[in-house]
């Protein structure tokens, strides 16, 4: 009987511990962060859009915010006349205009130039080396990235899947000075450990941090997401013009586009408030996927 009690107690302790690990919140609420360096890593122009409200808040509160995207987004279109080069330029313009809406300057935007849809097949060591170099240069305190999964592997679509692992694998490599050592011995950089993570696009039950973006940050997010005209309007099928913005669309199309963008921002709610949900993790990169 005593053994049974011990097992029950132990099991309960494990459940409580697992629950508390899953519910780990930032010690200081995200809305009060300041003086931090933040880096978001994604695959495509607009992958950062689900965090625009939080990034807007962080920037306004005196944090340095960078966005690094690995591909140019040069493939996602159904326009039969579109070319990769033209689309890459369009996506860069849209991304920069979006970042401008949330106060992030062009010099804080990095694009590694890989082809959209092909990140899975890019040389993994080369991409990791380039990411590590940026981590060691920028020295982020907090990394925003696709959630690779927590106690399981999440099946994200191809580039997102690769981006989730690359972002985390590079974070792990960055802390060890004997990995990509030339960056240290020749380029004058230092090994850098990132200890805080904000993962997006994970499963809902793993989210533990919701940032209230209601008000001006939601409004800026709406302005920012509305810059991605080539992805969410009729321009997806027929991009007719240059540097298109919402006002360039035909009235009916513009209405439908803005409605969709508004819903993306304001309908993502918790307790009636516009939020962005994340899985926050603090610790060494090795523990990012451990459910223990
Ligand atoms: Zn994407």
TrEMBL record:
Leader peptide range in chain numbering: 1-24
This protein's UniProt keywords: Signal
InterPro entries: GlcNAc_PI_deacetylase-related, LmbE-like_dom_sf
GO molecular function: hydrolase activity, acting on carbon-nitrogen (but not peptide) bonds, in linear amides
Tagged with keyword Signal: yes
Domain of life per record: Bacteria
SUPFAM superfamilies registered for this protein in UniProt: LmbE-like
A Pfam short name: PIG-L
PANTHER family, per database record: N-ACETYLGLUCOSAMINYL-PHOSPHATIDYLINOSITOL DE-N-ACETYLASE (PTHR12993:SF11), N-ACETYLGLUCOSAMINYL-PHOSPHATIDYLINOSITOL DE-N-ACETYLASE-RELATED (PTHR12993)
Protein name: N-acetylglucosaminyl deacetylase, LmbE family
Species name: Fodinibius roseus
Lineage: Bacteria, Pseudomonadati, Balneolota, Balneolia, Balneolales
